[in-house]
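Table S4 entry, Thymidylate kinase.
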Amino acid sequence: MRGVLLALEGVDRCGKTTQAARLAETLRQRGHTVETWRFPDRTTATGKLLDAYLSRAAEMDGRVAHLLFSANRWEKADQLLRTLQRGVHVLLDRYAYSGVAFSAAVNQLDIDWCRATERGLPAPDRVFYLDVSPAAAAARGGYGGERYESVPLQEQVRRVFLEHLYDAGRWHVVPADGSVEQVHQQLLPLVLECVEAAEHHNTPVGTLW
Ligand code: FDM
């Protein structure tokens, strides 16, 4: 039986990283094997360029940044598929949806052009969009000064996520204004349902889009 591929998405500071860690912990306690993967992966060659771009140490054309974010996923795609084939469930902390939403909203790139570079990547079985208003997210301890960390930009990003990328068959929009525990309790049954369903139907991993 293959592992399931689950993506957590949302604007900055919506709680994705905390929820991914909490879900991994709960799934492990229930006997599942789980890995959490984060994009961008800032440790690879493309990731180092992206880290410099995000921290404003380097300037880059928006299209170049988009292609690097996309390449940063493509360079891990085979490893991701092999991990799933070993029966490991993978929780993604951001994925191609962030790739399209941020590039289209912030750099005003054509959405179809942004989607095209993601076509063919392993498709998550489910996407959990943690929905907080960018103003509430910013109030959670503030932004750290990276590129894109401003409320008006994040408002535009949220609009692209919900108006252009929302896919009723695959997405759950989870209200995420509550406490860590409240959000975890909303996510957990949805995640368990997906993990348990995979034990009965060994469907192959799909591809975007
Ligand atoms: N981001 C992230 C993109 O612009 N494109 C992408 O493909 C991905 C995965 O990078 F501002 C943006 C989103 C966010 C930043 O921040 C990464 P975190 O805190 O490492 O998630």
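Helices lie at 16-29, 45-54, 62-85, 96-106, 111-116, 134-139, 151-165, 180-200.
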